[in-house]
Design a protein that fits this description.
There is one protein chain. By secondary structure, the protein is α+β, with helices and mostly antiparallel strands. Helix content is about 30%, strand content about 25%. A four-stranded mixed beta sheet has the order 1-8-9-10. Helix 9 packs across helix 11. The chain is flat. The model has no long low-confidence stretch (mean pLDDT about 95).
């Protein structure tokens, strides 16, 4: 890998993308449940098409949740304020089809399942979760996905500030980075698709997006050059967007939510799930572990896998892979992880303080690489260093 030159691409989507609209509604409902009842068990799915939102799934809670208000508030905040955009928060229909969680699942989660695990919180499902960290960016995230997210953030800023009045809510972007080994050396190409009003000329769209969005975000990286290629609205027109242009569904952007395809993915989505679901909390813990390993200087790149069995109150396996970049043996790192981190479902929730309404903010621009989330703290660095001596 040391002298290997290759291209790697990651994409992100904006807050107005139909799938992200659904993620934000599902996490908005989760947050409201946890705000009123921290012991809520939530698995909430949202579907968006045309002028309708359908919310379904399983929720067991003492909270009262106004599903219609949450869905409308999310759509308004994003900017779906005009029927021409494909959705209007004032007139959209909201249908709730929520029911209670299966008692067969719940007994394993709350510790009333198998006798050997009585009184211990079990995992809410089986599965494997991956976390990843690397030294490519200050956030210890892969460069392509961080660059793509920052373009989406800039798109929303330009639209909401009114600086570009013809931007509409739906957008998606993609950045291709050229690597030498594990080191980003240049940006090879940039794709930006931005929903827009119908009366804007193609040349103005291209010039505005390159000069006001792409270059302000990517020039500070020092990786743009005269050979970087720009693909702006490659179909030539992007007026019809949002849920009219493409249906939305919770949990369909799992690679956008994580590492942009760099590193593996266990397959489980995050949004709409309370932290008893290890699909979510286990992935957060895996990132927390990987980031602290890299921040401690134990490796330049690290992938962590955690795996669970439903109802069982501890992981069935813990694995790390440092891709040949470790400063100490892999065995020492795994041993240190087991000493420093409590990877039981209950331990994860306690360590990261997950029974609180922090989730709607995760549903756009990625769940990782943002300092305001507890799994992004590097507070186990010294403990890890001590544990590998």
């Amino acid at each position: 890998m040391a002298n290997n030159t290759y291209l790697f691409t990651s994409e992100s989507v904006g807050e107005g993308h139909p799938d992200k609209l659904c993620d934000q509604i599902s996490d908005g409902i989760l947050d409201e449940c946890l705000r009123q009842d921290p012991e809520s068990h939530v698995a909430c799915e949202t579907f968006a098409s045309q002028a309708a939102i359908i919310v379904g799934g399983e929720i067991t809670t003492n909270a009262y949740v106004n599903v219609q208000k949450i869905a409308s508030d999310v759509a308004k905040r994003i900017g779906y304020t005009n029927p021409d955009y494909g959705l209007d928060y004032k007139s959209m229909a909201v249908l709730s089809m929520i029911h209670e969680q299966s008692p067969d699942i719940n007994q394993g989660v709350v510790g009333t399942g198998l006798k050997e695990f009585q009184g211990q919180q079990g995992a809410g499902d089986q599965g494997m979760m991956f976390g990843f960290a690397c030294t490519e960016t200050p956030e210890l995230m892969p460069a392509p996905i961080m660059f793509s997210h920052k373009m989406m953030i800039k798109s929303a800023e330009l639209r909401k500030s009114g600086e570009v009045k013809w931007f509409r809510p739906d957008s998606k972007g993609q950045v291709t980075v050229e690597y030498e080994g594990h080191r980003p050396v240049r940006i090879d190409s940039v794709v930006m698709s931005q929903q827009h009003d119908p009366d804007v000329e193609e040349d103005e769209i291209r010039e505005t997006i390159i000069s006001k969005l792409i270059k302000p975000v990517l020039e500070p990286t020092g990786l743009l050059d005269s050979n970087t290629k720009y693909y702006v609205n490659p179909t030539g027109r992007f007026v019809i967007g949002g849920p009219v242009g493409d249906t939305g569904l919770t949990g369909r952007k799992i690679i956008v939510d994580t590492y942009g395809g760099m590193g593996r993915h266990g397959g489980g989505a995050f949004s709409g799930k309370d932290p008893s679901k290890v699909d979510r909390s286990g992935a957060y813990m895996a990132r927390y572990i990987a980031k602290n390993i890299v921040a401690a200087g134990l490796a330049e790149r690290c992938e962590v896998q955690l795996a669970y069995a439903i109802g069982v109150p501890f992981p069935v396996s813990i694995m790390t892979d440092t891709f040949g970049t470790a400063a100490v043996s892999e065995e020492k790192i795994v041993k240190a992880v087991k000493e420093v981190f409590d990877c039981t479902p209950a331990g994860i929730i306690k360590t990261l303080d997950l029974k609180r309404p922090i989730y709607e903010a995760t549903a756009t621009y990625g769940h990782f690489g943002r300092s305001d989330f507890p799994w992004e703290k590097c507070d186990k660095v010294e403990a890890l260093k001590a544990a590998v001596k």
